[in-house]
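> forwarded from #structure-qc
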């Protein structure tokens, strides 16, 4: 689908001749370009057919299918190894012949060296011509090694690359087929880890595998030569090597064990990071950085523990490369000396290279091979486990056919379906569901949260396995998911979805889905790239894009899972008329909806309850059967009768339907659930006067207005700007020394670093010293042998004595010193390796922690502009490189560099003539390396940036798995994945070939060096002895492979350091303000006490180069005030949340209870504000941790909070209760249940300020009402700010803040704002339709009148309080009552005159006298006096003697918290004692516990008697 990743640049290897392929000359044009400028994607060569992901994936899929088929019914398990071997085995075996030739050359070369050394041995009989021939033979062997080594390595690495590509392709195809049961047993993190780290083992394992059979053959040849030279003593060395084989096996198993453990924790860490990055906004607003940081730190520490254990083994392996040959030398030399054989130089320097090679082979190469085999075994096990996960059965409509022709008589037939997600749970998800959807018919499915609506669609899509019944679909399906899925590509690609672009059809669909104007203002129109998960689009835009995609597919049958929930009523009506009943009118449609006003237009309605169909039929049929929709529906052309109280008249039918819906379980599973929550029923809290009340604005989806895209249809539509994702940064130039400095600084202090340098030099010194001692020893033996020969010759000639001094060689001394030196090599070598790996592992740990801390503290804009895959790539691939590859590569390079310096130094000291050749060779080396490294660096960085889209595509595919499968576009997504893989392969292929281009040139330089040393030795024969020639030639031959390896490792270290550079980039991200303020700026511990918010001259912009989104706004919100926030798309509603939470730092002044929030710590602020976000976010882990990550609350508090959101019964029914594991993304809870859990979080926090970002978009009317009711009850003493996408939720607010273009347009009571004909709120309300406008205006009016009356009563109460306080102070209760009575009568007459009611007012209570006497006795202050409605009520509250409230006469229920009324008989007695009539007074005693009320009343009466 993404054409931008394709380019045409044919690979020149296809046209290259054999010599060019051998020497990699075909790469020269690329190096030229890379040297002159930075390489781009277009410069990379296209993959050849044999390396293509599609080709390899198809082949491996076929082989795996054969493997599965062959093992069916048998005891043998399918083997991925066997499948891969059938693909690549023959080609791989042929390459082994090249390796055999190379290793044979390495055996022959020491024999020729032995012949050359004989020339320097007195009396050997070797002439100068022969010596030149021997020197030429040694040089020729060096050239042969240069020619054979690189084709082999390039060939096996390319096979490793193919195996990796094939396995990745197979893994992706498998992931698209996973059933929900299979998905529950894996995570995105695990799949990403399989793709990023595990498959890399193939690249390494194939390199040395051939040594398993070449090594033993070579060992036999070497043993024969050494036996010829040294006799049976040779066996001692081989015995040592054989004894080490079981040790290697044991260490290999340890490697495997540690690798498995490491992979487990890496999976967990990557999964955690995936969740944290995706949910960062919620984490910041909830102040959860610390618990998530601790969680990652805990997992990372476990991961590092096993990485360090692996590195200890790696240190042993690294030392064995150097120490192994030396140890064999020691054993052989000691054995030879003990049996009395005197080693001469020729023997020594034939045997040393062969022993060196065998030591490296047995203790180095074979050990690494064994380690790689164990690693690959673990990978095969992990892949096998993944490939065995359950799949969906392939179905007819699950396949995509390019030449598809529309089916006739399209339909869906559902017959007696029973199904459940989790086989282990008894509760069924669906039971006894039957329906038929014919062409041109619309079937609507309704029901509360968790009723099984989405599950029914999943069953039709074959995602939910059936236990009984059947579902047949005729025609191709299209599916619109409840949560819109958008992937990272252009808008057009999201809609066209890989189909052919047809402009007329495309434009018609855009118009039907109301997307025209959105696209018109996008920077590049419909070619605008949108970010990962569609972060640059609003929720409404994502929903319409998802719908447009379904229309463009031109399917036969449409399943629509509540696609109208994210759009406003006007757009919803437009889409329903133009799409559901327009564009799709001739096709079968299934519409899951909570928007009940559309039910009349459905041909059939299904009502689901607890997964069971409790009603089916047309609107008319259901109405006639006793189900009356009049209380549930509201349409523009329909008037609904109302009672005088403004409530919908309930009939028995509506009562029945409402009961069936309001008592639905709130705990059904979402369509992708893993576990099933059992049902629970919730009691209605809306019983008034014994009748069930079903409020219009709480039950109707029709009375909603989503302001996500207000006015989309009209001329006033304000389209939303799209924020483009940033391109990934790519550095240029060399990796600076500062990167190395930061790396070692992170892993070691100055002392540790100096100690490391000392150990490196000491180990290298001991290494050279051991070789020098052997040379000295052999020279002593050579001198002794020469003297003995001359002495014996003279004796043979008849001399009885000679004056020849025969040197004494102290063999024991030589053996002892050599043993001591070898001990030093071992000690310093192992300490060097351990120290080096300790420093690098610590550096990796420190840099990971720094990067993670930086990510956690970075601004939220960073996560909006960078896709998850890009950030995750740093934590998976780059950290993986720093953990595994970089330490080994860096150590290898350090070891090689020291050896090379030692070799060149020794050869030069022995024969200064060598420096004549060394100087120009060094110049050539520097030029070639510089020429290479510039191109190599570009390619390595391209490899990093082309790798990210592979992971992003995988992540996006898993998110939209149901949609992909429903549309049957798996083939297209596989093709897209293959394209991304091919692009990455282009970079990787160039990385392999550029490495070989350099290596073969360096080996040719080394061959020239070997030739120079060998011929200069012959030239300078007069000044050299056999030992020195042997030493310098052995070193020169050792340099042959080591030099190019060391240089390549130096380049590889620089390439690997790019990972460090990338990690350091993310470690230096701009940080938010401090989380905690200094003590002098910390707010008081009990702040905020009231919740008063004052905003003065505040402006906000998301970055320096973006426009200002909030423009110099000022407003004040009083304590406990309920504020609604409305405005068109882009008006700045969400920016208010950003501003108050300081997710982006604003300018101006924001105070809460007189504390400047811009001066305090972020946690000081954010901990005091609760938020219920629009998109509910749950994290993997226990439900308890999702509710209370800090463990601040008891279990009782958690259960209470769950009870208040009607989830307690559901969670109690789960096997583990609060310890239930939440699946990745929370998908084992429905969307509505996730929202309720977020509400429970807010209840637990119990803050004075609550922000609600439209928390009811995905729930049914009943749950919507529940949430609104809970908010009003639990947060009545809080300041509440509600960002409204639906107007009915905020029309009863105290005031509405209306935003327009970042400025406050209006701010007043909704009723007053609606009186302005040209006001913005009035216009927004009028867009909902005539009937709904009337309804909203009525809600606002009643709310305003109630609040206004309460305000007047509060003023009266305050006035009454003053009068009573004055009278109490004067102890004149009688006067107080008389004056209040007169005051009351005057007010009553005024109201009668105004209202014409002539109602007779009753006298004021005598209770004030009683209260005043109580006051005089107890000296307690009067704290609360209140009134109610038109009658005067006097409340005297919160007194220690138990009298809490006394209210005046009224016929209504008192406003205050009143438990019971004092019996009229007791009141009469009390008033009689005070000389008043009992008939005129009602006395309420409020806020008194029922158990204490009687006693308190008696006390009150007895005290009155006493006073009287």
């Amino acid at each position: 689908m993404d054409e931008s990743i394709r380019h045409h640049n044919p690979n020149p290897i296809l046209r290259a001749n054999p010599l060019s392929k051998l020497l990699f000359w075909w790469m020269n044009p690329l190096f030229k370009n890379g040297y002159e400028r930075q390489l781009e994607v277009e410069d990379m060569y296209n993959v050849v057919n044999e390396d293509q992901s599609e080709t390899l994936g198809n082949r491996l899929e076929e082989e795996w299918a054969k493997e599965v088929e062959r093992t069916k019914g048998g005891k043998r398990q399918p083997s991925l190894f066997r499948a891969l071997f059938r693909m690549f085995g023959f080609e791989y075996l042929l390459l082994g012949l090249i390796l055999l030739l190379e290793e044979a050359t390495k055996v022959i070369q020491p024999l020729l060296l032995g012949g050359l050394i004989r020339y320097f041995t007195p009396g050997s009989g070797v002439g100068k011509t022969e010596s030149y021939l021997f020197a030429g033979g040694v040089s020729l062997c060096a050239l042969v090694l240069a020619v054979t080594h690189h084709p082999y390595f390039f060939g096996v690495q390319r096979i490793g690359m193919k195996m990796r590509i094939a396995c990745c392709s197979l893994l992706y195809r498998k992931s698209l087929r996973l059933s929900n049961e299979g998905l529950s047993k894996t995570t995105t993190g695990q799949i990403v880890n399989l793709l990023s780290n595990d498959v890399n083992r193939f690249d390494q394992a194939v390199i040395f595998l051939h040594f398993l059979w070449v090594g033993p053959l070579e060992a036999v040849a070497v043993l024969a030569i050494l036996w010829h030279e040294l006799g049976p003593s040779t066996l001692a060395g081989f015995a040592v090597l054989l004894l080490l084989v079981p040790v290697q096996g044991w260490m290999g198993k340890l490697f495997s064990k540690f690798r498995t453990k490491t992979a487990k924790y890496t999976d967990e860490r990557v999964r955690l990071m995936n969740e944290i990055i995706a949910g960062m906004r919620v984490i910041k607003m909830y102040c959860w950085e610390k618990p998530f940081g601790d969680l990652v730190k805990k997992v990372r520490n476990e991961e590092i523990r096993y990485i360090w254990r692996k590195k200890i083994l790696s240190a042993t392996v690294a030392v064995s490369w150097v120490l192994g040959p030396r140890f064999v030398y020691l054993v052989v030399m000691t054995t030879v000396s003990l049996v009395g054989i005197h080693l001469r130089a020729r023997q020594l320097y034939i045997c040393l290279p062969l022993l060196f090679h065998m030591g490296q082979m047995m203790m180095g190469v074979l050990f690494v091979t064994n380690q790689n085999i164990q690693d690959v075994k673990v990978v095969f096990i992990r892949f096998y486990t993944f490939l065995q996960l359950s799949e969906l059965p392939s179905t007819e409509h699950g396949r995509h056919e390019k030449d598809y022709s529309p089916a006739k008589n399209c339909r869906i037939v559902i017959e007696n379906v029973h199904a459940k997600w989790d086989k282990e749970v008894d509760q069924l998800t669906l039971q006894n569901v039957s329906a038929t959807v014919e062409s041109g018919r619309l079937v609507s499915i309704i029901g509360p949260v968790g009723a099984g609506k989405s599950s029914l669609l999943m069953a039709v899509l074959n995602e939910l396995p059936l236990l009984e019944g059947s579902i047949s679909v005729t025609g191709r399906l299209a599916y619109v998911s409840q949560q819109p899925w958008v992937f990272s590509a252009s808008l057009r690609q999201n809609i066209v979805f890989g189909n052919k672009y047809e402009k007329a059809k495309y434009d018609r669909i855009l118009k039907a889905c109301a997307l025209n104007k959105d696209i018109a203002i996008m920077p590049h129109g419909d070619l605008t790239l949108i970010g990962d998960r569609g972060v640059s689009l609003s929720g409404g835009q994502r929903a319409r894009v998802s719908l447009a995609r379904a229309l463009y597919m031109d399917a036969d049958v449409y399943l629509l899972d509540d696609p109208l929930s994210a759009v406003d009523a006007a757009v919803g009506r437009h889409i329903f008329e133009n799409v559901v009943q327009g564009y799709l009118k001739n096709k079968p449609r299934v519409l899951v909806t909570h928007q009940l006003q559309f039910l009349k237009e459905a041909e059939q309605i299904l009502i689901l309850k607890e997964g069971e169909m409790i009603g089916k039929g047309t609107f008319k049929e259901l109405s006639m059967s006793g189900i009356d929709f009049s209380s549930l529906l509201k349409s523009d052309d329909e008037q609904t009768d109302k009672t005088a109280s403004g409530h919908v008249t309930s009939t028995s039918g509506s009562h029945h339907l409402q009961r069936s819906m309001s008592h639905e379980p709130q705990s059904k599973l979402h369509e992708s659930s893993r576990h099933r929550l059992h049902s629970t029923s919730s009691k209605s809290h809306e019983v008034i006067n014994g009748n069930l009340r079903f409020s219009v604005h709480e039950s109707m989806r029709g009375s909603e207005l989503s302001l996500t895209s207000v006015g989309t249809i009209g001329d006033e539509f304000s389209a939303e700007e799209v924020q483009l994702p940033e391109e990934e940064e790519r550095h240029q130039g060399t990796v600076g020394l500062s990167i190395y400095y930061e790396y070692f600084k992170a892993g070691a202090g100055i002392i540790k670093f100096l100690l490391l340098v000392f150990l490196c030099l000491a180990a290298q010194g001991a290494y050279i010293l051991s070789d020098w001692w052997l040379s000295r020893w052999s020279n002593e033996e050579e001198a002794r042998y020469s003297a003995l020969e001359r002495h014996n010759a003279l004796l043979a000639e008849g001399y009885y004595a000679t004056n020849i001094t025969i040197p004494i060689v102290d063999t024991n001394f030589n053996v002892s010193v050599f043993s001591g030196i070898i001990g030093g090599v071992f000690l310093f070598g192992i300490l060097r390796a351990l120290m080096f790996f300790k420093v690098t592992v610590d550096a990796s740990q420190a840099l990971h922690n720094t990067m993670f801390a930086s990510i956690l503290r970075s601004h939220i804009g960073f996560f909006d502009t960078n896709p998850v895959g890009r950030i995750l790539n740093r934590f998976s691939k780059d950290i993986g490189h720093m953990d595994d590859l970089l330490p080994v590569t860096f150590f290898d390079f350090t070891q090689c560099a020291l050896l090379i310096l030692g070799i060149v130094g020794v050869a030069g000291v022995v024969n200064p003539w060598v420096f004549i050749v060394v100087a120009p060779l060094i110049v050539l080396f520097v030029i070639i390396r510089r020429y290479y490294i510039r191109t190599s660096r570009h390619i390595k960085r391209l490899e990093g940036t082309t790798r990210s889209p592979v992971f992003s595509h995988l992540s996006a595919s898993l998110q939209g798995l149901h949609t992909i499968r429903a549309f049957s576009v798996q083939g297209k997504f596989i093709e897209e994945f293959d394209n991304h893989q091919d692009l990455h392969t282009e970079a990787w292929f160039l990385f392999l070939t550029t490495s070989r281009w350099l290596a073969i040139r360096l080996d040719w330089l080394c061959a020239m060096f070997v030739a120079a040393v060998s011929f200069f030795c012959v030239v300078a024969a007069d000044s050299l002895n056999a030992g020195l020639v042997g030493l310098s030639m052995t070193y020169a031959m050792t340099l042959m492979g080591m030099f190019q390896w060391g240089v390549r490792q130096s380049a590889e270290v620089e390439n690997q350091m790019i990972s460090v550079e990338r990690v350091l980039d993310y470690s230096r991200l701009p940080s938010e303000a401090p989380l905690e303020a200094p003590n002098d700026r910390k707010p008081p511990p009990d702040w905020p006490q009231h919740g008063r918010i004052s905003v003065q001259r505040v402006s906000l912009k998301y970055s320096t180069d973006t426009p200002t989104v909030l423009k110099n706004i000022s407003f004040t919100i009083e304590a406990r005030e309920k504020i609604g926030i409305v405005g068109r798309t882009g008006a700045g509603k969400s920016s208010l949340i950003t501003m108050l939470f300081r997710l982006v730092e604003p300018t101006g002044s924001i105070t809460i209870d007189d504390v400047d929030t811009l001066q305090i710590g972020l946690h000081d602020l954010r901990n005091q504000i609760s938020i219920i976000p629009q998109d509910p976010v749950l994290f993997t882990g226990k439900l308890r941790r999702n509710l209370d990550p800090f463990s601040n609350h008891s279990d009782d508090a958690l259960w209470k909070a769950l009870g208040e959101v009607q989830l307690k019964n559901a969670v109690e029914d789960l096997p583990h209760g609060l310890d239930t594991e939440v699946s990745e993304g929370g998908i084992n809870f429905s969307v509505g249940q996730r929202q309720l859990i977020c509400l429970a979080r807010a209840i637990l926090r119990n803050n004075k300020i609550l922000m609600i970002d439209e928390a009811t978009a995905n729930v049914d009317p009943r749950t919507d009402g529940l949430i609104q009711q809970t908010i009003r009850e639990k947060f009545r003493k809080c300041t509440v700010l509600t960002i409204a996408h639906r107007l009915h939720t905020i029309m009863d607010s105290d005031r509405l803040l209306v935003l327009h273009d970042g400025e406050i347009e209006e701010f007043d009571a909704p009723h007053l704002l609606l009186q302005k004909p040209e006001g913005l709120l009035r216009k927004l309300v009028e867009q909902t339709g005539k009937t709904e406008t009337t309804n909203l205006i009525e809600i606002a009016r009643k709310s305003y009148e109630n609040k206004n009356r309460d305000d007047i009563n509060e003023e009266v109460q305050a006035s009454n309080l003053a009068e009573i306080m004055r009278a109490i102070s004067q102890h004149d209760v009688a006067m107080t009552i008389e004056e209040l009575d007169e005051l009351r009568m005057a007010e009553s007459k005024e109201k009668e005159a105004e209202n014409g009611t002539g109602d007779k007012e009753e006298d004021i209570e005598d209770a004030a006298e009683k209260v005043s006497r109580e006051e005089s006795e107890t000296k307690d202050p009067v704290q609360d006096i209140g009134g109610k409605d038109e009658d005067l009520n006097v409340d005297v509250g919160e007194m220690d003697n138990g009298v809490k409230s006394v209210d005046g006469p009224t016929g209504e229920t008192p406003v205050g918290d009143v438990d019971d009324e004092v019996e009229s008989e007791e009141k009469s007695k009390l008033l009689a004692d005070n000389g008043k009539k009992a008939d005129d007074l009602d006395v309420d005693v409020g806020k008194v516990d029922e158990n204490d009320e009687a006693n308190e009343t008696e006390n009150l009466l007895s005290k009155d008697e006493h006073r009287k």
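QC bot note: The chain has 45 helices and 27 strands. The first helix runs from residue 18 to 23.
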